[in-house]
Design the sequence.
C-alpha cells in the first residue's frame, strides 16, 4: 500500500516536533550542542526548527504523522518572518553560553563547506525521523522521494550533514554521496557532508 506524504501544517507542529526530538536526542550533534543534559532547550530547538520549516514550505510528513522530514529550502534562508515567528532566532541562547558556542562551532564548520560547494542555493535536509514502531517500513525513503520530486522539478541540488555513519549508509542508498568530511579541533567527532545532484545540474 503506497505511503501518503503531505505538507506539514502548523497545527501538527507539537506532535511532529515530539517525534523528531525522540529520533534526534541521541544524535551526536544534538548531544553535543545540548551538553548531553539540556533537554528542555533541545526540545524547544526542534519545535522551532519544525515551525520554521512549516512556515517556509519545507516540512513534510506521512499522513499518520509517524514520519517527518524538515528541509530548509532556498528561499527560506532570507525569511526573517520565519525566523522570528518560529522562535528559531532566539533558541540558541536557551542552551547557555557553552551550548551557544557549540552551536556556533557546528554552524561555522558546516557553513564553510556549503559556501564553496554550490553555485546556487540548494535544499538542505536538516532533520528526518520516524516513529520507532514504524521503522524499516519505507517511511523515511518515501519522505525523501517525495521531496526529491520537487527538488528535481526545480533542478536543484540538495545536501545534508550527519555525524551518524549508519545514517550515511541509508542516505547513500537514496542517491546522496559523501562530498566532504568536516573536521574541527572544536568538535569532538567527524561530520559527513553529503550531496545529491539533480539531473542536469552541476555542483
Sequence:
Amino acid at each position: 500500500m503506497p505511503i501518503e506524504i503531505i505538507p506539514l501544517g502548523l497545527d501538527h507542529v507539537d506532535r511532529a516536533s515530539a517525534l523528531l526530538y525522540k529520533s534526534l536526542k541521541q544524535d551526536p550533534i544534538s548531544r553535543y550542542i545540548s551538553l548531553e543534559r539540556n533537554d528542555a532547550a533541545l526540545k524547544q530547538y526542534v519545535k522551532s526548527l519544525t515551525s520554521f520549516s512549516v512556515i517556509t514550505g519545507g516540512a513534510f510528513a506521512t499522513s499518520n504523522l509517524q514520519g517527518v522530514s524538515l528541509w530548509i529550502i532556498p528561499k527560506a534562508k532570507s525569511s526573517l518572518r520565519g525566523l522570528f515567528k518560529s522562535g528559531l532566532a532566539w533558541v540558541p541562547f536557551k542552551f547557555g553560553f557553552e551550548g551557544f558556542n557549540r552551536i556556533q562551532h557546528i554552524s561555522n564548520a558546516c557553513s564553510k563547506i556549503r559556501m564553496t560547494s554550490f553555485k546556487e542555493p540548494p535544499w538542505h535536509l536538516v532533520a528526518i525521523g520516524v516513529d520507532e514502531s514504524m521503522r524499516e517500513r519505507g517511511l523515511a525513503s518515501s519522505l525523501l522521494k517525495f521531496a526529491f520530486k520537487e527538488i528535481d522539478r526545480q533542478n536543484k541540488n540538495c545536501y545534508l550533514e550527519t555525524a551518524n555513519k549508519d545514517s550515511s549508509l541509508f542516505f547513500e542508498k537514496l542517491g546522496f554521496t559523501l562530498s566532504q568530511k568536516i573536521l574541527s579541533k572544536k568538535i569532538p567527532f567527524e561530520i559527513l557532508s553529503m550531496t545529491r545532484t539533480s539531473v542536469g545540474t552541476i555542483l
User: Anything to note?
Assistant: The chain has a mean pLDDT of 91.
